[in-house]
Every structure is written in C-alpha cells, then in structure tokens.
Design a protein that fits this description.
Layout (H helix, E strand, L loop, with lengths): L12 H12 L3 H11 L5 H13 L10 H7 L7 H22 L23 H9 L16 H7 L3 H10 L14 H4 L2 H9 L6 H7 L2 H10 L14 H7 L3 H9 L14 H8 L2 H9 L25 H5 L3
Length: 323
C-alpha cells in the first residue's frame, strides 16, 4: 500500500525510461515491484503516458498495476473537470477501451489489440468514426502485433468494415500499406471488408496471393508489376518463400517461370527449399527439386533427414546431385 502523502512532481526521466522499458519487455513482475518500491502516487501526466504505452504494446494486464493511482487521481471521471480538460478526448477514449476490455477478460475479445475496438458500429457514424480515429493518427503506421500489422490490417482481420472505411477515408495512403510479412489489408479481408476494399481499388500483394495459390490473380499482378516477383518482406522472404511454406506447388512453377530466384536467401539464410523442409511440404520439395533448388540453412544441419517426409519423392540422393 502506498503512503497517503501526495507528491505531484513528475517522475524523473530515468524512472520513466525504466517503466517504459518494463512495459515493452512485458515484465509484469518487474513493473509491480517498481510500482511498489516507488512509495508514492504517480502524477497524472506520467500515468497517462504509461497508459498509452501499455495500450500501444497491447500490455493490457499491466493497466491493472496502476489502477490504484488512476482511482486516486479520479482520472476521466465526469465530475473532475480539471482532469477531463487535462486529459483530452484521446485519453478518455483509451480509458473507455480499457473499461470495455475489463468486462471481456477470458473471452475472445481479450486477445484483440485494444485499439481495434475504436469507433462505433452504427452505419451512419462515418464522421464520428473519423473524428475518433483522428485522435490516434500518430499510431496509424505503428506495428501493433508480431506480424507487423498496422491498424488498417487489424480492422480487415477482425471485420471492422465501418472503421476500415473511416480509416481509409481519413488516410488513403494506408490502403495498400504492407505488414512486416508483406501483406495488404485486402490479403486479410473477408466479406464486407473485402467488398469495401475492392470499391476503394485496394490491391493484393504477391505474398498474399502466394499463400492461397491463386494462379490467375498472380498472373494478373505480375503482368502489371513484374518487380513483385523479387520483392521481399521485412524478413527478406520473397513470394516464392511464402509459396514454399504454404505448399503451393503450382504457384512455385509460375513464379519460377516468371523469373523468381529459386535459391533466394532470406535474412536468416533460408532458401525456399529450407522453408519447404521446415514446413513439411513434400509436394513443394518435389517441385523445387526439379528446378535445382538448394538448401541454405539446412545445408549442414545434422537434423536434415528428419525434415524430409518419408512419402516425398525428394531424397538425399537427389539433393547430392546439385549441392
């Protein structure tokens, strides 16, 4: 329990840096210990700053650590006009998201990044959705999950078509922005969100098409943008790597025919053959073998034999012919 004495002086820059570091590392125990040992109530300005960092990094459970201080300061309460004016619309919106999620602990919604819940559901609320999203403009290009998805991607993934419409209306440049794994919002979208994005003339990425093996769509995209064949995502993966991972043998044939480097190496030193082996995609291994694909990461691996399925035509003897 903290002391009853109040200290409204802002926390030191070093202390703020420590807390942010704990949040980013998702060190809940460390944050709890730091909070207890501080032996004081944290000032409003610092609380709001930490709260936004927690939301940004989806450290939702960490908000409970500072709940006592939030209550102590009476943050976001309608009767506390000073706090309301100081916080502004953005922080109050974040607080509402937090309160909504506290009611969904253990449910499916709890696994969704809180920012995805922004906006209203009413069809006639486009302008309202735009005004709410505008408060978070500085987060539009932030990577919000391990796949490097931005808000536009998450809206598409979770079917929030009304919010997606508002976001693209507010910033059309987000329409075809790619995630860290090389996907656009259209690559993720289904149903209403897909229809909406097509109306806005959104485009698939070749990485996204390679996942599902849509040959016709791949042909169309490559004919318009030939350089897509060699384009890589944040991890250095080409569309051929992706096709190998998802077992899209026909897609591999097309990509190689269109000039893809069958032995392209990603930033971890993996070739498409490595990806096929690791994913257990036997049909993909066979096709890559016919195109004289080689191993990269697995070239000297003692576990190589374990990565080749017994029902594959691809055998070590075949590999020795071209490695």
């Amino acid at each position: 329990m903290l002391e009853e004495t109040r200290d409204d002086e802002c926390l030191s820059e070093g202390f703020r840096h420590l807390v942010v570091k704990l949040i980013r590392r998702n060190d809940l125990e460390g944050l709890q210990k730091t909070y207890r040992n501080s032996n004081r109530y944290w000032p409003i300005e610092d609380l709001v700053y930490f709260m936004e960092v927690m939301i940004q990094y989806s450290r939702f459970e960490m908000l409970e650590v500072i709940k006592e201080d939030l209550d102590e300061h009476g943050l976001f309460s309608n009767h506390n006009q000073e706090c309301v004016q100081l916080r502004g619309a953005r922080e109050q919106s974040i607080y509402k998201i937090w309160k909504r999620f506290t009611l969904n602990i253990g449910k499916e919604l709890y696994n969704i990044h809180p920012i995805v819940m922004l906006g209203l559901k009413k069809v006639a609320a486009l302008e309202v959705n735009i005004s709410i999203l505008n408060l978070y403009e500085d987060m539009f290009y932030d990577a919000l999950d391990e796949d490097g998805n931005r808000l536009v991607h998450l809206f598409a993934i979770h079917g929030r078509s009304l919010q997606l419409r508002a976001l693209i209306t507010l910033n059309p440049q987000l329409l075809n922005i790619r995630s860290s794994i090389g996907l656009t919002a259209l690559d993720y979208a289904e149903k209403d969100s897909r229809v909406l994005l097509l109306k806005f003339k959104a485009q698939h990425s070749l990485h996204g098409i390679a996942r599902i093996g849509d040959i016709q769509a791949a042909e169309s995209l490559i004919s318009k943008f030939p350089n897509e064949v060699e384009k890589v995502n944040k991890y250095g993966e080409t569309a051929l790597h992706v096709a190998a991972i998802f077992g899209q043998a026909r897609m591999i044939q097309l990509l190689v025919h269109r000039g893809a480097n069958v032995n392209a190496i990603n930033f971890d030193g993996w070739t498409p053959m490595d990806e096929a082996i690791a994913s257990g995609q036997t049909a993909t291994m066979d096709v890559l073998c016919t195109h004289e694909a080689v191993r990269g990461y697995f070239e000297h691996s003692i576990d190589f034999d374990h990565g080749i399925a017994s029902n594959s035509k691809f055998k070590r003897d075949d590999m020795n012919n071209f490695t």
